Amino acid sequence: MYDLILSNVSKHIHLTREETSLFISVLKHRRIRKRQYLLQAGDINQYENFVTKGCLRAYTVDAQGQEHIAMFGLEGWWISDLYSFLTNTPATQHIDALEDSEVFSIEKSDLDRLYDQVPKFNRFFLKLLQNAFVAHQRRILASISQTAEEQYLDFISRYPSIEQRVPQSQIASYLGLSPETISRIRRNQVSK
Amino acid sequence: MYDLILSNVSKHIHLTREETSLFISVLKHRRIRKRQYLLQAGDINQYENFVTKGCLRAYTVDAQGQEHIAMFGLEGWWISDLYSFLTNTPATQHIDALEDSEVFSIEKSDLDRLYDQVPKFNRFFLKLLQNAFVAHQRRILASISQTAEEQYLDFISRYPSIEQRVPQSQIASYLGLSPETISRIRRNQVSK
DNA sequence: CGCGACGTTGATTTGCCTCAACGATTGTGG
DNA sequence: CCACAATCGTTGAGGCAAATCAACGTCGCG
Description:
homodimer
């Protein structure tokens, strides 16, 4: 049950037995049914969440009611509205499940205590965030410099596991394209 | 001379006198003339840079020769090609100066040693990166959900100091718009 | 002075969106 | 278990926001 998250941690730092059990003691296991919210915009994001099963998404809803996906969360990924989490302000993002899912959640106060008691967790989350930051930078540059087709092809080659699991319309929403555009790109693709 | 960077650090962590002098000892002061490179794509980004004076930009150049600005760096900001820095691989970004500038640079090996000797620097860079991550997330959502005009107005209200200092064409390049579009937005704006 | 950098403006093009209709598949309540 | 609704993707027609192309004015600098 703890294998996935412990191997995720051990990619970056090494934990002693005591540190491991301390870490495990702050994990809250939760099941989220498809379409169920893990977080609603307006609420305060109390948890950093690690996905152990299924698939979630974080997204905003604009004035026209359109959804814009900030990130997906598959097995082995972390997902939260980080700004809300850090500043204790109401979330601007919703997080919900695209499939029946399971996560481990760490409460903010527990995480802060963990940072103090086992300082190397600072290093761990620093590493995580470095990776996320680099990925975001790439996404920004893609968004401002590439055509719709380039963005889509890049996406599916970079995240084939997402492309296979989530509806095309969700990928469209992640890329900032219309579902029809994705459909047309795919049509042109087969004839190439 | 060290005031700006020390106050930047002390926003997030407190340093003893010894830690402060250790920190200062790894800072390399550099002057970069307008149009001069701090980093060229293809080279390995050896430094994390803190801007103490002037204004720099990090950007990629695509196959058509078009520049796309990843980030600006004004006084008090950090700037680097983080991916290259972390992985020791050739940079994909150029960094150069839009004005005569000065920076403090920290070499990677020094930073790694600093992390070990003064672990709270992990915390410091974690905090920095959290802020940067949140800003990037906002930028992504803006880019995929807003019109050109909304993006531009958002930008100048969020970063008035940049808008006053850098050419409009550079802001266009940051937002992924053409310079002409920015010009037209501004024209419509005055008549409102 | 003359040149390059920068911004403006107009004309035209184009990539992608919107709107609308439809088929296939999935899921669900009677 | 079937019928009907919802979800999802596809396709076509038309429109529009922003890009492109081109010409020109202004300013600052070497």
